[in-house]
Design a protein that fits this description.
Layout (H helix, E strand, L loop, with lengths): L3 H4 L12 H7 L4 H4 L13 E4 L5 H10 L4 E5 L3 H12 L6 E4 L12 E7 L8 H10 L1 E12 L5 E3 L3 H16 L6 H12 L5 E9 L2 H16 L1 H9 L4 H16 L4 E12 L2
Parallel strand pairs: 1-2, 1-4, 2-3, 4-5
Antiparallel strand pairs: 5-8, 6-8, 7-8
The protein binds S-adenosylmethionine (SAM).
């Protein structure tokens, strides 16, 4: 059920927003840590579409791999594209395009790309099956569809800090109210079958934070994200007070500073070659 109808939340809203703390977190992503399952199938000269590219760090890595092939990063809103264009310029990439558009209505003709990729995007969409159909439509025969997505309920951490459990519960309620599905990972096969993707292959891979530096970075980053106006305002709409949100942030920082801290985030991966 889309609870946005019940809560008055704007349906289809991107739950995380694009504040600095969010872009900093997304900006640490690389093709190696987020698209390793796809890399062996990439080759020089391919045209690639990165749907929901965010600040574009994965996009720009893909561009390095397929150069002189052209990569296009697509985003529904302009905010992260500003960051993406700056990063492209800093990396000396004057070829990659960053364009505004909707994953649900890709603004490209049929069979335009050799690879159509989406990382942590389907979980935010009201109709992930429709988005996969769009990805198939713009992919050339013989080309590749690749999607990777997280699964919040499958995330594990230690120590078991109660406020982080609270964060996951509140985040999941907000994301569902916005029309998303935080349990995207386990639904990847179901969505792929519903979209009619032929010969899809599924795999999983995990982000692990288990060094002092990684845990401090992730814990502080998560604390900054929950303290951001986007989360605070949405949490308030679900009856969560500013004080409760501050406790979540404190919990994240405590976790990040703990010498035994561990966090793992499993992802599901879908890879399919178009007939
Ligand atoms: C979790 S971020 C992932 C960004 C990037 N793929 C990465 O992994 O670094 C999800 C992105 O999807 C974008 N997005 C959400 N709904 C979208 C839509 N309907 N069309 C295009 N992009 C969308 C958001 O704006 C956000 O930047």
């Amino acid at each position: 059920m889309n609870t946005s109808v019940m809560t008055g939340e704007p349906a289809g809203r991107y739950t995380h927003g694009h504040a600095r703390a969010v872009l900093a977190s997304h900006g640490a992503r690389t093709a190696a840590n987020s698209a390793a399952y796809l890399i062996p199938h990439l080759s020089s000269g391919m045209a690639v579409l990165d749907v929901g590219c965010g600040p574009g760090t994965i996009t720009l890595d893909l561009a390095e791999i397929v150069a002189p092939g052209v990569v296009t990063g697509l985003e529904r809103v302009e905010e992260p594209l500003t960051s993406a264009r700056l990063t492209a310029a800093a990396r000396g990439d004057h070829t990659t395009r960053f364009e505004q558009g909707d994953a649900m209505h890709l603004p490209y003709p049929d069979a335009s790309f050799d690879v159509v990729h989406a990382h942590q995007v389907l979980q935010h969409l009201m109709d992930p099956v429709g988005a996969l159909r769009e990805m198939m439509r713009v992919c050339r025969p013989g080309g590749w569809i690749a999607a990777r997505d997280a699964d919040y309920a499958a995330m594990t951490w230690y120590p078991e800090i109660r406020e982080i459990d609270g964060w996951r519960s509140v985040y999941s309620r907000i994301a569902r109210a916005n029309g998303g599905e935080p349990g995207a990972g386990r639904r990847m096969r179901a969505w792929s079958r519903a979209a009619g993707i032929p010969h899809a292959v599924f795999s999983t891979s995990v982000w692990t934070y288990a060094t002092a530096e990684e845990c401090a970075w992730w814990g502080n980053g998560q604390a900054n994200r929950v303290l951001g106006a986007t989360f605070v305002q949405q949490a308030a709409q679900h009856g969560i007070s500013a004080e409760q949100v501050r406790a979540m942030a404190t919990g994240w920082r405590e976790w990040g500073d703990h010498p035994d801290a561990w966090f793992s985030m499993p992802h599901a991966e879908l890879l399919a070659r178009m007939p």
